[in-house]
């Protein structure tokens, strides 16, 4: 019952949201993406901005998830000093790594360049980028000792999309570039001939839990 009430409340808030935010959300829904990437809406955070819309995605190969992530669109009609704008995109991307890749000292810098490169490749302008790249390793003991050691990369980032006509950023293009990042982290081949020089992570060894 509470979930139904929350859904109805979210629907009412969406109907009364400012026109630029509604247009930005509609553009996200209409974006055309790679078929290997499954995207669906998810409940957005409530306290980061007056208006928010969130998506979660997974790069899928058969029954295997190669990478997953979350993208949140924030909007504050009054503007935000830290954003230098009225919109902000916030993301989390995760993928498992081969041990030799996890040991590469340049991996964090490379992963950050994948994010900025994905935006630049699509000709997108943005400001105030910030974020972290974290790699972690898990080793199993006792009853879990049969599991092989696992390594994971995690990219947390945010940036301000530049606003176009009517104060609306090109959110569809930003979503597409974010999906390019997901695909790259997952080790998928480039989407087009123009991306032939892009370096990707190797395919993961086994299924990743969602």
Explain the overall architecture.
The protein is built from five helices and six strands. Mean pLDDT is 82; it is low at 3-7 and 193-210. It has one domain (18-188). It has helices spanning 2-15, 19-30, 99-102, 107-121, 171-186, and strands at residues 37-42, 51-61, 64-80, 85-97, 126-138, 150-161. It has 210 residues and is an alpha+beta fold. The radius of gyration is 18 Å and the shape is elongated.
Write the layout of secondary structure elements.
Layout: H1 2-15, H2 19-30, E1 37-42, E2 51-61, E3 64-80, E4 85-97, H3 99-102, H4 107-121, E5 126-138, E6 150-161, H5 171-186
Antiparallel strand pairs: 1-2, 2-3, 3-4, 4-6, 5-6
Helix pairs in contact: 4-5
Q: Beta-strand percentage?
A: 25-35%
Helical amount: 25-40%
Please trace the helix and strand order, writing H or E for each element. Answer: HHEEEEHHEEH
| Average pLDDT for all residues | 82
Number of strands: 6
Tags for this model:
210 residues; alpha+beta; 6-stranded antiparallel sheet; 5 helices; disordered C terminus
């Amino acid at each position: 019952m509470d979930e139904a009430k929350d859904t109805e409340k979210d629907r009412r808030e969406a109907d009364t949201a400012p026109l630029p935010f509604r247009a930005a959300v509609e553009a996200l829904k209409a974006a055309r993406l790679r078929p290997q990437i499954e995207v669906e809406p998810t409940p957005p955070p409530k306290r980061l901005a007056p208006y928010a819309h969130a998506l979660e995605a997974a790069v899928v190969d058969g029954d295997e998830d190669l990478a997953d992530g979350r993208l949140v669109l924030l909007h504050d009609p009054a503007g935000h000093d830290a954003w230098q704008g009225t919109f902000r995109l916030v993301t989390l991307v995760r993928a498992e790594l081969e041990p030799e890749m996890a040991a590469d000292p340049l991996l964090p810098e490379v992963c950050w360049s994948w994010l900025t490169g994905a935006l630049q490749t699509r000709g997108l302008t943005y400001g105030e980028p910030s974020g972290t790249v974290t790699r972690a390793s898990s080793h199993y003991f006792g009853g879990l000792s049969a599991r092989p050691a696992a390594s994971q990369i995690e990219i947390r980032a945010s940036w301000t999309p530049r606003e176009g006509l009517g104060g609306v950023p090109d959110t569809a293009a930003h979503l597409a570039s974010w999906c390019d990042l997901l695909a790259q982290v997952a080790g998928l081949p480039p989407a087009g001939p123009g991306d032939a020089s892009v370096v990707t992570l190797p395919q993961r060894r086994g299924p990743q839990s969602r």
